[in-house]
């Protein structure tokens, strides 16, 4: 059994980040804490540790149950931690994800850009 593994490697292995580089960047940015202390990418994580991470605009709070080094499938990854994260915010099903333009309509005008910004909730 492994005693401890790098936090960036573990976050990637249990599928909390898409890449190990994303996990390392989050650590360097101060978005990852292990047992209440800000973690560097090379910080080790062990069974029983409490990990708090801000990943992809979402707060993830997990307790380490199993330490792994290699990325595994989702079913196995879920057995490696206990998730205490708050539920993700509810999405409005009627709100479009992006503005759709007709093919061949050319580049959007200033007016079109303002309308797109209003749709996305980025009014000035």
Provide key terms for this protein.
single chain, 124 residues, alpha+beta, Structural Genomics Hypothetical 15.5 Kd Protein In mrcA-pckA Intergenic Region, Chain A, five-stranded antiparallel sheet, 7 strands, 25% helix, 20% strand
In short:
The protein has 124 residues and is an alpha+beta fold. The protein has helices at residues 7-13, 20-28, 74-78, 110-119; strands at residues 5-6, 32-34, 37-38, 44-45, 50-55, 58-64, 81-83. 25% of the residues lie in helices and 20% in strands.
Query: Which architecture of the domain at 5-83 does the CATH hierarchy give at level 2?
Result: Roll
Average of the residue pLDDT scores: 88
Spatial strand sequence of the major β-sheet: 3-2-5-6-7
Instruction: List segments where confidence is low: pLDDT < 50 over at least 5 consecutive residues.
Output: none
* The level-1 CATH class of the domain at 5-83: Alpha Beta
Helicity level: 25-40%
Tell me what portion of residues adopts beta-strand conformation. Answer: 15-25%
Radius of gyration: 20 Å
Q: Structural class of the helix and strand makeup? A: alpha+beta
The fourth-level CATH homologous superfamily of the domain at 5-83 is: RNA-binding S4 domain
Summarize the biggest pleated sheet: 5 strands, antiparallel
Assign an overall shape. elongated
Can you characterise this structure?
This protein has a domain of 79 residues: Roll (Structural Genomics Hypothetical 15.5 Kd Protein In mrcA-pckA Intergenic Region, Chain A). Helices cover 25% and strands 20% of the residues. The protein is built from four helices and seven strands. The chain has a five-stranded antiparallel β-sheet. A two-stranded antiparallel sheet has the order 1-4. Strand 2 and strand 3 form a beta hairpin. The termini are far apart.
């Amino acid at each position: 059994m492994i005693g401890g593994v790098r936090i960036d490697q573990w976050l990637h292995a249990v599928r909390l980040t898409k890449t190990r580089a994303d996990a390392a960047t989050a650590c360097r940015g101060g978005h990852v804490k292990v047992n209440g202390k800000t973690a560097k990418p090379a910080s080790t994580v062990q069974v029983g540790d409490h990990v708090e991470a801000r990943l992809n605009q979402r707060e993830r709070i997990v307790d380490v149950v199993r330490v792994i080094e290699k990325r595994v499938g989702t079913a196995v990854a879920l057995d490696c931690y206990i998730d205490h994260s708050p539920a993700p915010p509810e999405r409005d099903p009627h709100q479009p994800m992006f503005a759709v333009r007709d093919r061949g309509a050319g580049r959007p005008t200033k007016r079109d850009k303002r309308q797109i910004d209003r749709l996305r909730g980025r009014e000035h």
